[in-house]
Amino acid sequence: MVLFRGGLDAARRVLEQHFGHPRFRIHQLKVLGPLLSGRNVLAVLPTGAGKSLCYQVPALLGDGLTLVVSPLISLMQDQVGALRRRGIAAAYVNSQLDAKQRRVVLDAGVNGQLSLLYCAPERLASLTRRLRAADTRLSLFAIDEAHCISEWGNEFRPVYRRLGVFRSLLGGPPTIALTGSATPAARSDILRVLRIPDAEVVVTSFDRPNLAFLTKQVGDDRERFALIRARVRSAAGASLIYTPTRRLTELVTRALLRTSIRAAPYHAGLSAGIRRRVLRAFLSNQVNVIVATSAFGMGRASDCLVLWRREDFSWGNIAPAMRRYIETRQCRRRMLLEYFGERCGDCTGCDVCDSRHR
Questions:
Q1: What's the confidence (pLDDT) of residue 58?
Q2: What is the Cα–Cα distance from 196 to 17, expressed in whole angstroms?
Q3: What is the distance between the alpha carbons of residues 317 and 34, in angstroms, rounded to a whole number?
Q4: What is the largest distance, in Å, between two alpha-carbon atoms of the chain?
Q5: What is the Cα gyration radius of the chain?
Q6: Region 7-203: CATH code
Q7: Which end of the chain is more exposed for a tag (fewer CB within 10 A), N or C?
Q8: 3-state secondary structure the chain
């Protein structure tokens, strides 16, 4: 049975006609080749690599609905908006919709009026029941941010641990799981949970030459904030400040604003509308600094500086690998790559190897 019409040749036409790109990147072809032939795929690709095209293009070649599971409401909404502007029938189901709006979207999905349907993982159980009741055929099951299955599954998105069950209930459609980073152990866990042990695994290098890795010990939080403020003021470009909690995100933002630094918070506790406005302001240089939890991605050339003090290790969720990274006197880039099962060539930037970053 042909699941995706026309193979790679048809995919290239879709890419150019609907998305305006003349060709795929090499790693996208490595994903699409097996996927279009009906194989399951786990794709570990960096931020900015075009992961979304790896399921959006096949969605336009399939005979059924493509169901995309995404934990980030703002990105889900942005993708659906972009697809609609290109004339592609797409919709989402999440907590931002009321009951009537959800019914309209689900009716469109089961009646064959949509090519792509995005859903938050917490909506997947009820959506699965609806799709099964309507005998809706899935041509593709896509899981974005698949690292949530292993690394954050028990706290951040518990339902991710049940994705394999839902996949079976939906008839075991061709599946693509995508993430920006996953250790060998995490990759094995993802395949096990999704029940796709024979999937094609496509992994690009985890080395990010655009990033330099640094750490600096501080005596207390006052010194830490003073260093943050000084670094932000002297930065030639934009700055991202990561904090471990939403509360600290808000507190650091307010402290920066009091010193006349244009800053804004970004975390999962903010509404989707606020997050979209913050992101747009940041990309248009109206805001110089984003203070965020790990809900905000980073893909540009940057110095990645960890400011730490001994008392930080009393937090119960500090991984031993993170402590080794902070305290090491060896190449930080090599340590990061070895964590992901990869060997490091020449270091292109860390404070251990390069005096310019000390």
A1: 96
A2: 32
A3: 38
A4: 65
A5: 22
A6: 3.40.50.300
A7: N
A8: CCCECCHHHHHHHHHHHHHCCCCCCHHHHHHHHHHHCCCCEEEECCCCCCCCHHHHHHHCCECCEEEEECCCHHHHHHHHHHHHHCCCCEEEECCCCCHHHHHHHHHHHHCCCCCEEEECHHHHHHHHHHHHHCCCCEEEEEECCHHHHCCCCCCCCHHHHHHHHHHHHCCCCCEEEEECCCCHHHHHHHHHHHCCCCCEEEECCCCCCCEEEEEEECCCHHHHHHHHHHHHHHCCCCEEEECCCHHHHHHHHHHHHHCCCCEEEECCCCCHHHHHHHHHHHHCCCCCEEEECCCCCCCCCEEEEEEECHHHHHCCCCCHHHHHHHHCCCCHHHHHHHHCCCCCCCCCCECCCCHHHC
Q: What angle do CA 75, 66, 164 make, to 5 degrees?
A: 90
Q: What is the pLDDT along the chain (358 residues), one digit of tens a residue?
A: 457 888 899 999 999 999 999 999 999 999 999 999 989 999 999 777 889 999 999 999 998 999 999 987 778 888 999 999 999 999 999 887 888 998 999 999 999 999 999 998 888 999 999 999 999 989 999 999 888 887 544 444 678 889 999 999 999 999 999 998 888 888 999 999 999 999 999 998 777 778 888 999 999 999 999 999 999 999 888 899 999 889 999 999 999 999 999 999 988 788 877 887 888 888 788 999 999 886 566 557 678 899 998 888 887 677 788 889 998 989 999 998 888 888 877 888 899 998 766 6
Q: Listing from the earlier edge strand, what are the strands of the sheet with 289-292?
A: 239-242, 289-292, 263-266
Identify whether the C-beta of residue 228 lies closer than 8 Å to the C-beta of residue 290.
Answer: no
Asked if the domains at 7-203 and 211-357 fall in one CATH topology, the answer is: yes
Q: Do residues 70 and 157 touch, judged by C-beta distance below 8 A? A: no
CATH class of 211-357: alpha beta
Give me 213's structure tokens.
């890795």
Give domain limits for the chain: 7-203, 211-357
Distance CA 93, CA 202 (A): 29
